[in-house]
User: Fold this.
Amino acid sequence: MTRPSLEKRGGLCHAHTAGFLAILYILTAAPVAFAWEATTLISHGDPANRIDLVIVGDGYRTQDLAKYTSDVNMIVGRFFNQTPLSNYQSHFNVHRVDVFSRESGVDHPEYGIYKNTALDCTFNYRGIKRLVYCNSSKAYTVAQDAPAVPDITLVIVNDAEYGGSGGWIPVSSMHASAVEIILHELGHSFALLADEYTDAYIARNHPFPTTEPSRANITIETERTRIKWRAWIAPETPVPTTTWQPASTPGLYEGACYLAHDIFRPTPNSKMRSLGRPYEAINTEQFIKQVYNKVDPIDWVMPLKTELSTDRGSYLTFRAGVVHPTSHRLIVWWFLDNRFVSSYPSYTLRASSVAPGTHTIRLMVKDPTGLVRNDPERLLKSERVWTVDVAADTDMLPPLGDLALSVQGVSAHQVSLSWPDVTGESSYELEHSVSPDFTKGLVRMTIGGDTTSFQDDNLTVGTTYYYRLRACNSAGCTDFSPAVSASTPVAAPFFVEPTVIQVFW
Assistant:
């Protein structure tokens, strides 16, 4: 299955670095050439089908390793405690690269403080005190020392002052709100979300969009049917949403992307507007879709070949490994020629049960989460298809064996039958009739092979039924077995309670 690339980034309202992305790679100081030691903290599977988060630090000296380790462990522990990351932790691997600086801390030009650090991180970038920028080329190079190619590179700086940035590589200080900063910044760099807050200073250099923004959580549309998150807006919620609504209610709220008017966000106050808040419905949905932009729900399948051939005496087993979310299970469905046959991780095709020719086996895996309502690219669903050519066996003979049908039990509306197994059958044909010559009330039923019993239900009371059976495969059928009969009993009369009693003497 071809999945859109996670690198589809761009657009406006991109983190605190709005307007600065063009210079992220201009700083081309010589990249760090030293091979740093790396540790895998969480491993949930093959990096080819997981999101590999690589954490690197700046402003940590070799003697700060214990603090660096503690800082990273704290971040990782809290990182997966919030929806939707808590739901999809199984889709992530996490690695730490131990990169060390000559000095502790990072630059604060506003205070005249400059440090010699591995990644050249600095506060007060472009005159914005809380905006922390690092040399992205160096950070990217260091991240390559992880045991997997990073899908997300996160830089943490050894400084307790509040600050961070988004962009291609999110950055956070070790302020008390570090995890919230990181989650907000990943909303930009990973989930491709816009800021939802207003900021007059940034807005001065941020023109109003003339076309609909590409970000999933901002819009200039005010017509309900054209709002990109309309699937989440209840009919009773006014659009635009100017009246009070409960905190998480999706609607159309004015003010986003630093601008106070004529641009709208989906909820009153999400993590993309204020730290400490949930992502809320629309941003959570977008985050999950980006997870599936990288991770295929189907991890592996067997057989690897998709065009198979077999003879009618063979069995073919199909298996799949799926990436279940941490919070729930995926739907797994197998289809044979578009007919549902199994919901287990594997399915075995008995070639003798189908006619010679080409047949299709289809595996469909889907995430049934209620956290996603809008998935036009069908990212939460994945399929694999095999074609199986079943050869006609010119030497095949009809089933072998003597069929002796016997009655095992009779009730007012049911007859239970059994018979010995025979060799080479793919199905049985069972007939019942109300006449011994099978001319009246004839009913013919097809029963799957490898079956030696059957219950005939919904019969009429007080009736004699006649049964006969034959075994079949593609080469033909056996003769019918000798007929057997069974009579359903007449139901016992109900007890009638007298309503009038006459006494004579």
Summary: The mean pLDDT is 88. The chain has four domains: 21-189, 200-292, 298-390, 406-487. The CA atoms of residues 463 and 488 lie 5 Å apart. The longest strand covers residues 357-366.
